[in-house]
Every structure is written in structure tokens, then in C-alpha cells.
Write a structure and sequence with these properties.
mainly beta, Thrombin, subunit H, six-stranded antiparallel beta barrel
């Protein structure tokens, strides 16, 4: 049996946080639940309606991520990132698994954030 070879260049931060996305600023927001994020991409589930961006289209992503201070205090920071829908996989119950590649990397690696267990569900 062959050993599994990890091809990812960066670990993901696995989470269950709300995420919003739209084709452009001023357009109707579609919402979903974030599953994982790296500095270059995000994956989430959502219901794709007629107003939501489709595979290959540009999109704007809005999400919150915890920022932990030196004294273990925390804030939620709202980030906005343009990107392109890289993949959409249909799942059960009308949900889709969506992967968006950011146009520009995040300035940090989310998996390296210092997280407190209670912050995992916002």
C-alpha cells in the first residue's frame, strides 16, 4: 500500500464560520459556511441561487476571522477578498461545496493563528 503524499503547500484552518460572497460590490450577497481557509483560498458550503457567482466567475468574499492579542484577548476582524470561483461540487440537500482562489494572498497563514476552543464557533 502506498503512503499518502501531502501535496498542499500550506496547512488549512478548519472552521465553521459564516461567509458571504457576491459577484461584485453592490450585488446581492449569497451566504455560506466556511469549511477551511489558507492564505490563498477558502472552501465553504452554500446554496447557489441565480444571483450567485458561478464556476470560473470573479467574486468578492466577505468573512470574519479571529485575531488573538498578546494577552489572549480576541477580536473578530472582517476581511474582504476578491477572487475567482475555482471549483463547485454539488452535495446533498441543495448545498454546493465551493472553492475560491484569492486574487492576492492573505498577509498571514490562518492555520498558524492562535485559537481558543471557544472561538471555533462564532
Amino acid at each position: 500500500m502506498e503512503a499518502f503524499k501531502e501535496r498542499r503547500k500550506e496547512k488549512r484552518l478548519y472552521c465553521d464560520w459564516p461567509i458571504w460572497f457576491a459577484e461584485d460590490f453592490g450585488k446581492k450577497l449569497c451566504c455560506g459556511r466556511m469549511l477551511a481557509i489558507s492564505s490563498t483560498a477558502v472552501s465553504f458550503t452554500g446554496i447557489l441561487g441565480k444571483d450567485c457567482p458561478q464556476n470560473g466567475q470573479k467574486t468578492i468574499i466577505y468573512f470574519r476571522i479571529p485575531r488573538v492579542g498578546e494577552d489572549d484577548s480576541s477580536d473578530l476582524v472582517l476581511l474582504t477578498r476578491p477572487g475567482r470561483i475555482h471549483r463547485i461540487d454539488e452535495t446533498a440537500d441543495e448545498l454546493s461545496h465551493i472553492v475560491v482562489q484569492f486574487d492576492q494572498k492573505l498577509p498571514f497563514k490562518p492555520a498558524k493563528l492562535k485559537l481558543v476552543n471557544k472561538m471555533l464557533s462564532v
